Amino acid sequence: MPGLNRPVSSSLQRWLLFGEWRAHPVRALLAIVAIAVGVAMGFAIHLINAAAFNEFSAAIQSIAGQADVQVFGREPSIDEAVYPRLARHEGVALASPVLEIDAALPGVKGALKIVGLDPLRAGFISPDLTGVPAKDRPADLLADDALFLSPAAQEWLGKRQGDLLPLRAGTRDFTLRVAGPVLRARSGQRIAVMDIGAAQWRFGQLGRLTRVDLKLRDGVDRAAFERALAAELERDFPGRFRVARPNDADQESRNNNLSRAYRVNLTVLALVALFTGAFLVFSTQALSVLRRRSQFALLRVLGLERRALLRQVLLEGASLGVIGAALGILGGYALAAAALHFFGGDLGAGYFPGVKPQVRFTPVAALVFFALGLGVSLLGCAAPAWEAARARPAIALKSGNDETALERLARIWPSLVCLVLAGAFAFAPPVLELPLFGYFSVALLLIGGIGLMPRLAATVFRMLNRAAMRRGQSGASSPVLSLTLARLANAPGQASIALGGVLASFSLMVAMGIMVASFRVSVDDWIQHILPADLYVRTATGGSTGAFGPGEQAALAQTPGVARAAFLRTRPLSLDPARPDITLIARDIDAADPGRLLVLVGRGAPLPAGARPVWISEAMSDLYRLRPGQALQLPLGGRAQAFFIAGIWRDYANQSGSAIVRLSDYRALTGDTSVTDAALWAAEGVPVERIENALRTLPFGAALTLARPGDIRSASLRIFDRSFAVTYLLEAIAIAIGMSGVAATFSAQTLARAKEFGMLRHVGVTRRQILGILAIEGGALTALGVATGFALGLLISLILVYVVNPQSFHWTMQLHLPWMLLGSVAAALLAASMATALVSGRHALSGGPVRAVREDW
Questions:
Q1: What is the DSSP letter of 702?
Q2: Fewer CB within 10 A of the end CB, N or C, for the chain?
Q3: pTM for the full model?
């Protein structure tokens, strides 16, 4: 009909859009909120991690100053004898020695990073780290009892200029005077600066350096100099040094690898809410299109083009996406700012300690997340829009043909393709050390599972209906139950829309609940296995300066009541400049029975005669592509030492990798007789309290930190729960959105069936019976959705536990099902759906049967 020209069509589109919003504001609001929450959580996590990572990298670079090249050791420290050689090297204008120490603080958790510098040389390379002494005490720059604290360190320790700061080296405590502030430390950077000679003496590091910073002469090609110096040092000192630039790609990759998997997994988890929002848009638009089929058909008869109708439904879905995405961007920025202010930049994971980043709005990221929210909304309304546009007006004008419009949902081949692809992707290797195919597999499982719901609903309810009919013939079936099953069996398409909401929310909750519970139980079992002693002793809760010497080790072993003592030494090692350091653990371990102390994974390799064994963690095996039976070169004692990989063990404490060697081998290769931890076994009948009291009476007893296995286990699980606090929050949000969507879908479907209820009232069905039909229908649909969601969630959890988690964090775990959590959420979903159906049914029946059927034309 020519009367529907472009201006009128535009006005009609606006009228239809706002009219639909006015008619069903709650459904539209829920879809908007779901999209907003998904975009906000994803955008906030991006902003938080970007700010924390950038600030952390900038803090590391600020310590490096303006050096052109840096020379590090592959071990924690290097011999200062290399310094004169570097200082006299051709092309070097200035060389500055640096000693970095993570100093333990008595009675304080954490460590203070102390940078020992030569004040006469560091001013030309690291001027920002120059201490600022009092005007009347300029010699404090070289004093052996003075150090300078950054503003963040002063605030953290509660110290000001002139105060004394207690520090610990080994079991010995001493104090240094706060001589003033650091010239220009970054915000939140907890560091101290002191004279390098004083630092070496005070902390027992005489003759040791961490690195040497080099400033090159004008005109020297830095890249060529770096390559030449690296080749020269490798030739003369094989396996001892690495040469790098302060801001080179290796350093950037090294910092990035610290938290990349954690950041990516949190972002993907945040998008779970966005996925739920996409389904809410789909259910909102699908129900809206079904309810207005006759209206759209009339518009088509009056001349509205199919393209215009398609554009109308897409416009309605896009409007939800635009509003939700815009609110999500604003909410994400506010959430990121609040999280950085109250919780810091690591979200409880501990990747960026001592950093106080400020959130910065990034337009590119905002545009990406906005487009993601809009795209999800358009994806959700694509199928309803296409159905509305291609429906034949003559058929759509007839009443009672809603189920015909949903027949295409019952096609199973697209769902089967998704499931087959999900299975194939589950076995794919990681990409850039990230489980991208694992994420695709989870998404395809969800899509395929939801797509199978119409066929599954039809099959299940038709079988139940046939069984009810057979019982009805014998007079044993309830009329209410018969009517309910007949409705569900003959309208599976509408039922599948409600089922999809239950399936999406519950399956994701099941998957995340199983994954987190499996991880927590595995960590708990692992802790109990690796802590067989009755008491554990160390001298500090943080830092690298706490240690026991040979005399102190003997005193611990000879403490009255101690039957046996074992000692452990940890230190970092660099195997790859582009990766974070691994942790070397030297401990008393029986090579013939390593499983007594380690949680071994897979089969080990028999140890050849005369070989030095090493047991590497799962993370080290994956990151460095190492397997049992291979040789491994570890930088120890100033050179590369050969070890034989005897097995792989599970280590949840060191994500960047760890290696365990025998303490005797470590001492023979390095000459280092100190240890960092002691494990004590009580003699039979001796209470642990008596040993603790005896240890306190030792000459160095005041410096000891004592912990029983139960205490360590409780503290470790608290750290685990704090690290997964964001995961719990995101999971709760996804469940809340899913339950709201289920309630909205049931409510919309119930209200749309007012004419059906009016007809039932006319043929003699009572109001009470109709409410019973709705309650049983809601319960049956939710029960089927919960059962299917559990099966689908279990499959997704298998991918999370056995694919995503090992490829992300490089460790395995055992599967554990939290039945209490799963049962409580299933019961909540069942109760919510039944209650919603009853409340909506009372509203739908409030108009009376005559009025309801009078609207049927």
A1: G
A2: C
A3: 0.79
